[in-house]
Design a protein that fits this description.
Blueprint lengths: L3 H25 L3 E7 L5 E6 L5 E5 L3 E5 L6 E4 L14 E6 L3 H4 L1 E9 L6 E11 L2 E10 L14 E3 L5 E4 L18 E5 L21 E4 L4 E6 L6 E5 L6 E6 L40 E3 L6 E6 L12 E5 L4 E8 L2 E8 L7 E6 L5 E5 L4 E6 L5
Antiparallel strand pairs: 1-24, 2-3, 3-4, 4-5, 6-7, 7-8, 8-9, 10-11, 11-12, 12-13, 14-15, 15-16, 16-17, 18-19, 19-20, 20-21, 22-23, 23-24
Length: about 375
Amino acid sequence: MKTTSNIAFYLLLTLMNTGCGESSKQESNPEPQLVTLNNLLDQPWGMDFLPDARILVSQRGGSMLILSPDGADILTIITGLPSIHYDGQGGLLDVVVDPDFDTNQWIYWSYAELGFATSLTGTAVAKGQLVDGHLNNVSVIYRQLPKVSNETHYGSRLVFADDKTLFVTFGDRRNRDLVQDLSNTIGKIVRINTDGSPASQTPTFNTTNALPEVWSYGHRNPQGAAIHPETQVLWVSEHGPQGGDELNQVLPGANYGWPIKSYGCEYSSPVGDDCRIGGGSHAPDYSEPVSFWVPTSIAPAGIAFYTGDDFPEWKGDLFVAALADRALWRVKLTENKETERERLFGELNERIRDVSQGPEGKLYLLTDSGKLIRINANGSSR
């Protein structure tokens, strides 16, 4: 039997453990603090980090910058870019650093390109070797085809797979009738080698005219892309019409339904459950989104998985930048299913264009107003 003194001891121990547990929980769940590092950028669109922690930023008007590691100073305006078509939603779009940059100095960027001797435009991907602030050996490695006559839905995010092949997301350019046709790259995601040739790890489709680089199709306007840090599977965010913005796990050969299925509504229709395109539900013929936003569009842009240490409760979560919603969304995933989502930083009232994790494990945001913002744990200056 337990004596009175033993019971008192166990009660005291329980209270001590409970207190320690609460303290530990508080310590492991710090409050996020937003720190504006730079507010002098001009329509920043994409960012990546050089091996020495300097920050590479693309600006939609057609310039690319190198910022200091703390983000405060513009060190270099990069020279040597090709002609950028800047109109509508077009311009200089995403930028990524080669995984072997230390030895080869290559960077890659996507942009809107005007057709030769025509007024038609399309998304293109180019690369160049970044040496002393100048791009050498610049070449266009891939072009979305066909070029079309409007200035919207270019996509376009670039992300390297674990085998150093490159995923490129392409929007539908408001040409719905081409999206389900595998002989073009309208509304597609492609997987290519760094010279622009089709990667060997692409799916085979049951049609003779399918382009060998196509990875998936049925996309509307995918403006966010990230590789899952554990599964190495590609994830994308994409714009729906009125509502129906999607977060998708992108599997090889999958068809994501646009323009046949969407949880959004046609622009000519009042928003409601009865106007969802094709009834909304994608299954069984098309791949269901992991998450979607209705009835109001958030206009999702860049996405990033969080693997840092500042916020243990966020580890493994996916973050989605939102333009129209002027916020950052946190999506918790369990076995590739959404189990929780949270709207963050609405008080910023900023169109957030991109979110990226820096080499030190912190999240960085770009806003259309020209700000670079870092998310710190409360009390941390770095």
